[in-house]
Structures are given as structure tokens and as C-alpha cells.
Amino acid sequence: MRADRPYDLVLFGATGFTGGLTADYLARHAPDRLRWALAGRNPDKLAAARDRLVAIDPALADLPLLTADVTDPASLRAVAESARVVATTVGPYVHHGEPLVAACAAAGTDYLDITGEPEFVDRMYVRHHAEAVRTGARLVHACGFDSIPHDLGVWYTVKQLPADAPIAVDGYVRAGGRFSAGTYHSALTAFSRTGETSRAARARRAMEPGPDGRRVRAVPGRVGRVREFDQWAVPLPTIDPQVVRRSAAARPEYGPDFRYRHFAAMKRLPTVLVAGVGLAGVMGLVKVAPTRRWLLGRLASGQGPTAEQRARSWFRVRFVGTGGGQRVVTEVAGGDPGYDETAKMLAESALCLAFDDLPETAGQVTPVAAMGDALLDRLVRAGITFRTLSA
Ligand SMILES: NC(=O)c1ccc[n+]([C@@H]2O[C@H](COP(=O)([O-])OP(=O)(O)OC[C@H]3O[C@@H](n4cnc5c(N)ncnc54)[C@H](OP(=O)(O)O)[C@@H]3O)[C@@H](O)[C@H]2O)c1
């Protein structure tokens, strides 16, 4: 039935910064057979976004434009019912995300986003996972720099270790780049909602079944020196370890007892201290409404790093995995993490759900659980490095 829908893919948010880059990526790299459309709340901005795509590929002059607003559930229902896959870059997701998740879960439509907001993901599990399982929709969050390199990087590492023994993996992230207004707003919003985030996590834990007869954990590490990489490691409480743990719960390849720790890697200890103090200061300021409003007003939606700034940006995540008496060190690396590579990751994930031969899954699923090797192969072909440094 879903094959009869007019579109393979609808991109929601193409008038924003990351959505615009995702549309550009699709215009350059999507196969000719892709039947796709752009969706957004402002028809004039949508038309301008399409004009930009026509400069990349004149055949896109007739690319359909769908008007939809997150405050209008009927418009989202129409989008969800018209597509096999919907990818959205409309954030902060905790404010704008749920109506589209609900529409996709109800319509049996595959849904992808690039959220890094744990509260949103946990709430969507509690409210929409069961309905998506019933309709067959795959709800795949965190398909950007949060959390594709970490989720697929651990998957790539684990597959090189025996699956019948306990496995431990440590991930060390380094990145250089600037952020967009959308990322800035989403991060400040998440910092101001630590109570809501804990409550959402508790509600999820109370109803989510654990993996049958296996143990999977994501545990905080400690600040310390990693001699092997000549760097300092600082525990990084992003959404990534949660995504990795859920992938480990979903796939037997992670073995009978899996443990993951997630770190930021830094060259110098003073950088660690300055980053910690700076973050603590911002987290304090966003708890107070007037300073939060002032901080949120510093950047306007649609702004982001220039092409030159993005060209200088990079990321590298190293993983050290041990299990069954073996040790493997791997690396995932690429260019501008937040935007060029996030656009690539989201677009390739959407094409993967639309066209690839994938395991049967439904409900809220991680990138690895939904797409695994098919997505890994796509990302490698698209220029993201996955390599084994030592085994
Ligand atoms: N995980 C990652 O690695 C990663 C990387 C990049 C971005 N992100 C996330 O992606 C999100 C977008 O970031 P961005 O920099 O692209 O933000 P942005 O430039 O501000 O774009 C926001 C988009 O949301 C749309 N929008 C806002 N309210 C809407 C509504 N009521 N109905 C329909 N559309 C609405 C805007 O439409 P208009 O143009 O009409 O205003 C715009 O298209 C953020 O949550 C950010 O954190 C995550």
C-alpha cells in the first residue's frame, strides 16, 4: 500500500539551514528514480529553496512543494500519508517534533530526524512506539552527527570482535567546526530542561523491555589521559551513548554482555577545564528565564557557518573495543560534522529506508537496528571514512 503513495521521500524543513543543505545533497546525489518533495510552512521560502535546487539540477523545476506547519495536524497528516519516508530538520524537536512523529506513526510512514535531544526521543518512545509497531512505521531519530558516526562506528567495531564473549567499547570524539542557530537553540533548550529530561527517561525505563537474557550498558567514564592517542578523555553525556546502548539491545552481534563509554578527546588539560567551566556557566544561565531569552535571541533561525567555514571543519571518532581476548581500534572520520556531513547522513539514511533491503523492524529503532550495514556501505560510498587502525 505504501508503494502507491505519490512520494518516496518528503523533506520537511528545507527552508532552514540544515534542511537546505540536505535538499542540496539530494539534488546532487539522489537517484533519478527518487520521487520526492519539499515541505515547509512558508510557500515563498519553499519556492526560493526549490529555485536554488534548480541551479544544481534543472530537472527539479517541477519538484513538488507541500505546505505544512507543525501547529496544523491536518497538514502533517497529509504529508505523512503522501510519502513512504519523511525526513525532518524542524527543531528544536522538543518544541516542534512530536506532531510529525504522531502523524507518521499513525500513517505507517517511516520517519527520520537529526535530533540530539534525549528528552524528545524518550517521550516519542513512550507516546508513539506502540502505534508505530502496529502500523509498521520505523521511527529513526538521531540520523545526523548525533548519532550516526557513534552508532555505526561502534557497530563497525563490534563486528570485528567475537559475539560470544563480553564486549567493551570506548568512543573518543574530536571535532572542529561552528554551529548553526538551530543547533544553538536546541542545545540551550535541552540545557534548560534537565528535570524534564530525567522524567522522560524514567517514564521510558518503566515501560521499555530489556534485551532477552543479555546485558547492555552505557556507563559514564572518568576524566583521564589516553596515552595511546596522546589526549585527555572527558566523559561526554550526549545522546550518543543511549543510542549505542539501544542498538546493542537490538542486535545479538554486541554479545552477551556489552558496555559502552563515551568521551570527548582533547589535546590539552586546560581546554578540558575551560570547556567544563564554560558549559557549567551556560547551563546555569539558561535555567533563568530572562537570561535564557537573551541567549536564545543572539542567533536567528536559518543562520549557520559559511561554505568556507564548513570546508575547514572536521570530525574524528576513535573506538577501542575489547572482547574474547581481542582488541581492535577503529576510526570514523569526515568533514564538517554539524552540517555538510549531517546533511549527507540524513539524506543517505532516507534513501536507505526508501530503497535498500533492510531487516524487518518497526517502532522507534536506532540507525544501526533499522539500517546497519546498508547505511554503513552508503556512507562509505559517500566519502565518510570507516577504518581499522589496529586489530
Ligand atoms: N544532530 C545533529 O548533528 C544536528 C546537526 C544539525 C542540526 N541539528 C538540529 O536540526 C534542527 C534544525 O537546525 P537548523 O540549523 O537547520 O535550524 P533552522 O535553520 O532554524 O531551521 C529550522 C526549520 O524549522 C522550520 N520551522 C520552524 N517552525 C516551524 C513550524 N511551526 N512549522 C514548520 N516548520 C517550522 C523553519 O521554517 P521557516 O524557514 O519557515 O522558519 C526551518 O525550516 C535543530 O534542532 C538542530 O539542533 C542537529
TrEMBL record:
GO biological process: glycolipid biosynthetic process
InterPro entries: NAD(P)-bd_dom_sf (IPR036291), Saccharopine_DH-like_oxidrdct (IPR051276), Sacchrp_dh_NADP-bd (IPR005097)
Record's GO cellular component terms: plasma membrane
Domain Saccharopine dehydrogenase NADP binding: 10-136
PANTHER family: SACCHAROPINE DEHYDROGENASE-LIKE OXIDOREDUCTASE (PTHR12286:SF5)
Record-given protein name: Saccharopine dehydrogenase (NAD+, L-glutamate forming)
Species of the source: Micromonospora marina
